[in-house]
Fold this protein.
Amino acid sequence: MVAADQTQGQGFGQPGLLDRERIIAHAGFNRWLVPPAALAIHLCIGMAYGFSVFWLPLSQSIGITAPVACPADAGLMNALFTTACDWKVADLGWMYTLFFVLLGSSAAIWGGWLEREGPRKAGFVAACCWCGGLLISAVGIYTHQLWLMWLGSGVIGGIGLGLGYISPVSTLVKWFPDRRGMATGMAIMGFGGGAMIGSPLANMLMNGFKTETSVGVWETFVVLAVIYFVFMMAGAFGYRIPPQGWAPAGWIPPAASAKPMIAQGNVHVKDAHKTKQFWLIWAVLCLNVSAGIGVLGMASPMLQEIFGGALFGQPELGFSDLNPDQKKMIAGVAAGFTGLLSLFNIVGRFFWASLSDKMGRKMTYFTFFALGIVLYASAPSLAHMGSKIGFVVAFGIILSMYGGGFATVPAYLADMFGTKFVGAIHGRLLTAWSTAGILGPVVVNYIREAQIAAGVPRAQVYDYTMYILAGFLVLGFIANALITPVDRKWFMKDEDAAAPVVSAGNGHVGSAGVGSGGLDAKVLLAWLAVGIPIAFGVYQTLQSVVKLFG
């Protein structure tokens, strides 16, 4: 995966191993080596989605077989420092919130630094933060100090998430100006797939390390940290950036008249947030993600409460009529539903982002919102009809568009603001994700609780929620409709704008053949390195899905 470095002897004044100048591609470099490098990082940090697999074991890390309850009057501060009783799942769940708040904020804060220093240094720091955070969390579990887990994985790991998430965006957009959506879709697909691989792997490790005195979680964190560090370093050192003015062989940038929604210049990161287009795209992402993440977080209980006994062939039994053994049975079926949604989320990232290269970014988001409105509004009717297949397919498509929204937005930004600072601009835009991570679950969870408290039958508690989420998408549709090309007054008067385009095959000294080539041995090995773990995750997911339709 790591391409041979072309830099000659490193004497005095030569760029350092992590410096941007060190990773400028030379003749013979194949641009198809960059996506697997990005995937190597995203597949590792994507395990943030799968951290819930640790909550139940950690909630009995002292009791081992059953939780040792804390005093009834013990608050959160007691939970942070106590060594006498087990943590509550709700206290552990705050780490999930920290992940995505820190992801968005760190991407916004250090996005400009990433553009200056290059993706290798950002990937290196991301690996140190994410894997170092796992090791600190392992110490926190071993010493039973929750504050160390929050600091390790939540804060330090969250910073690693932000830097790792945006590290390949600008690079891939520059390497694939002819296929922006496809390129970013390939990488960001990995973030959605991280939990698909990491969750079953973590379960295997915990079962292997489990003893009479340990639930096996701290040992699992150490092993995952080592595995992830190796993969993330391979990804970071596999990054290369194209020479100034490079373009793929035979590719001609579209004329302004042919593609009016694609900028013919670059907007500086310090000016992007001053434009209405930035905030409209911010709203588009926030609303799309709020609707999807709210459903994703409640997928398992939603399926169980809506269909109840129908999940095992007794549709006359509602959720409240089930005994504990039956509830345990349908929980296993619902796990297959959650796994299937994750698979749709992953596939949607590549499918929709690639399709956006043909449809255009604005039309792709129109499709997300229009189709999403219909599907959300139809979900209550599908549930009342007892159409399990229709319900599952509807939410599979919804989650594919949730993932597709993440993967398409970097290309949307590159179209609107140019490629020069797209990584930094994307970092600032991810604050929309942080906002959605609070807004979506709050809407779904609180409306559900209010409906249950009002005595609404469990099969109907999500009806109003679906209509409200459809309303979110109506607002997103309007925001997307208002997006127009950026006014030329915001474009930089770039001295490099007049630089000649360096094509992959035009014979320029030092750049001939840069980025060219297809499936050679090196590319095949790089894709196998990330493809085998993805295949493992898909296989594990499909095994769970069998229970849903079995």
In short: Confidence is low (pLDDT under 50) at residues 1-12, 495-512. The CA atoms of residues 46 and 360 lie 27 Å apart.
